[in-house]
Amino acid sequence: MKSLITLLLFPGLVAAGVSTSKADLVLQHGKIYTMDAARSWADSIAITDGQIVYVGDDSGVRSWIADGTRTIDLAGRFVMPSFIDAHVHPLSAGVELGQCALTDASTLEGILATVKQYAAEHPALAWVLGSNWQLPTFRDANPRKEWLDAIVPDRPVLLTSADGHSAWANSKALEIAGVTRSTTDPEDGRIERSAGGEPTGTLRESAIDLVYKMAPASTLEERVVGLRRAVRIMNGFGITGFHDASVTEDELKAYAEVERTGGLTVRAITALYADPMQPVEQIERLKRLRRQYHGKYFQATAVKIFEDGVIEPATAALLKPYLGRDGDAGSLNWEPEKLNPLVAWLDREQFQVHFHAIGDRAIRASLTALEEARRANGPRDARPLIAHLELIDPADIPRFARIPVIPVFQPIWAYADSYITELTVPKLGPDRMRWVYPLGSIHQTGALMAMGSDWSVSSVNPLEGIEVAVTRQDPEGPRASDRPFYPEERLDLQTALAAYTIGSAFASFREKETGSIEAGKSADLIVLSRNLFEISPAEISEVKVLCTLFEGKSVYEVPEWAGPTAK
Q1: In whole angstroms, what is the distance from residue 514 CA to residue 522 CA?
Q2: Pick from 412, 401, 502, 489: nearest CA to 454
Q3: Sign (positive or negative) of CA dihedral 247, 251, 257, 261
Q4: Per-residue three-class SS string for 526-552
Q5: pLDDT in 10s for each residue of the chain, 567 residues
Q6: C-alpha Rg value of the chain to the nearest Å
Q7: Burial of 463 (0-12, 13-18, 19+ CB in 10 A)
Q8: Strand duo 189-193 + 166-169: pairing
Q9: What number of helices (H) and strands (E) belong to the chain?
Q10: Using CA atoms, how far apart are residues 526 and 32, in angstroms rounded to an integer?
Q11: Is omega for the bond preceding 456 within 30 degrees of 0, making it cis?
């Protein structure tokens, strides 16, 4: 304990290589990007009891090496802090991987073949449940129930879209749920219908629940298996921390069980779902869940507010109407008269507010609610988050730094894919498209930025998102004729890496514990196959994680990563 106190109070001793104890693990001869305030580089790291005790040059680390110290020659490999995903849905993603996964099916024929095969291989399942069909696969993002009826006529089928804001049901599922042409749209939801008023099989937003509530819920065992699966996948991509962006109490039980049995090799902030149907009644429930579910590696300290939907099916809330939709501008899930008092209460009770806001009206309403909370409750280090931020009115961009609010972008969306070209441009037009995913403009205000993936909506690999943040082009390789998507909104590599490490650590209230490679911090770091600063930005997504350390212990590694050892 004396040696640790010395290190924390006198970090200069560490930099100079003057040690008061020996290290368990030493990594040397590397190119280590520390992500400290100066964005400095180092050659070596010494780790004891899961903490970093030395960062500096190779000569200074020698005094930390003794009998029993494991030493690894990095042979010039690139090392940086591990990633923290500030907006992701790992538990549900892990559960979905055990169901009918449609991620790799890019055509109607491919989707139907996958569903048919899954149904045949699981004849005992009462329902066929699946996820991750892509909206642009279908005209107007509107698949038909008859297509599913042709391959699974005798069992209910319910398939959620990749973004989670639409679902596709067959006739059997609609029948069980009692959804007919006479069923009215629920509040904040929409049943897509044919010209004659018949449900087509596509459900939007809260209308999904009409059918989903009839399907069997996942069991605790399935949720535990799903979370373990997700954590392994995330560790493999260099992630050792995240914000689970919306959880139920059943899901919190799975977190508690995985931590109890030693499988939670991440630090997680979980966001409790705020029900717009119970703006006041849920307050005691939220406080109880925060008290009850508070482990070493996960805490239920945030609250998720879905302020709107998404632009592609026109459920996001806009300041001006969608093109071609007869004055429809979408709607807020929480109107200001309900939203502002809730946010002020959450802020006063020291919950971290975590918004989903896609459209410019929803973003403005979220910012205003947070501004009102600051005015009502006075100064506080609240660190509220607004995630997604697709269309931001330029007048609102300076407010992020002023309030302040942490913008949490999903940078992997910021290029001209089919979602943008086929579903977004026709609904917004060129003038508004200029302000879609304005990462660079937000950064220029001085707002502290975090990043996330929104997995399973999109790839969980941070390096893909970082590449898009820097290039604004397809990470799978743009065609020669492709221009970057509003290149003035690109970020430099340092800024993008910071957002996925120290920025997301700050968003987690853990910047003093992790997010950079500094003495006194947890040894959460990754070794990569290539130096990100020495390659073309278009190659960033091709880089592989060789090893992930969490509290100094390997939670992922490829067999050949360490190279020769040295003593």
Answers
A1: 6
A2: 412
A3: negative
A4: EEECCCHHHCCHHHHHHCCEEEEEECC
A5: 333 333 333 344 344 344 457 999 999 999 999 999 999 999 999 999 999 999 999 999 999 999 999 999 999 999 999 999 999 999 999 999 999 999 989 899 999 999 999 999 999 999 999 999 999 999 989 999 999 999 999 999 999 999 999 999 999 999 999 999 999 999 989 999 999 999 999 999 999 999 999 999 999 999 999 999 999 999 999 999 999 999 999 999 999 999 999 999 999 999 999 998 887 778 899 999 999 999 999 999 999 999 999 999 999 999 999 999 999 999 999 999 999 999 999 999 999 999 999 999 999 999 999 999 999 999 999 999 999 999 999 999 999 999 999 999 999 999 999 999 999 999 999 999 999 999 999 999 999 999 999 999 999 999 999 999 999 999 998 665 578 999 999 999 999 999 999 999 999 999 999 999 999 999 999 999 999 999 999 999 999 999 999 999 999 999 877 655 544
A6: 24
A7: buried
A8: unpaired
A9: 21, 24
A10: 10
A11: yes
| For residue 404, cis peptide bond before it (omega within 30 degrees of 0) | yes
Handedness of CA 181, 186, 187, 189 (dihedral sign): negative
The CB density around residue 1, as the number of other CB atoms within 10 Å, is: 5
Q: What angle do CA 278, 283, 289 make, to 5 degrees?
A: 115
Strands 70-73 and 25-28: parallel
Q: How far is 100 from 138, CA to CA, in rounded Å?
A: 19
Contact yes or no for 85/504 (Cβ under 8 A): yes
Token pair 């977004």 is at which residue?
424
CA dist 386 to 15, 36, 83, 131, 365, Å? 38, 25, 19, 25, 11
List the chain domain ranges. 2-82+520-557, 88-212, 220-507
Architecture in CATH of 88-212: Roll (3.10)
Task: State phi, psi for 44 to the nearest 5 degrees.
Answer: -140, 155
What secondary structure does DSSP assign to 254-310, as a single string? HHHHHHHTT---SEEEEEEEP-TT-TTTTHHHHHHHHHH-B-SSEEEEEEEEE----
Which amino acid does the sequence have at 58?
A: D
Encode burial over 436-445: b for 16+ CB neighbours within 10 A, e otherwise. Answer: bbbbbbbbee
Contact present, 297 and 289 (Cβ < 8 Å)? no
CA atoms within 13 A on the CB side of 157: 31
Query: What is the CATH code of the structural domain delimited by 2-82+520-557?
Result: 2.30.40.10
What Cα–Cα distance (Å) separates residue 72 from each residue in 64, 65, 448, 559? 13, 11, 35, 13
Tell me the CA end-to-end span of the chain in Å, nearest whole number.
26
Class of domain 220-507: alpha beta
Instruction: Tell me if residue 218 falls in helix, strand or coil.
Output: coil
Is residue 337 within 8 A of residue 303, CB to CB? The reply is: no
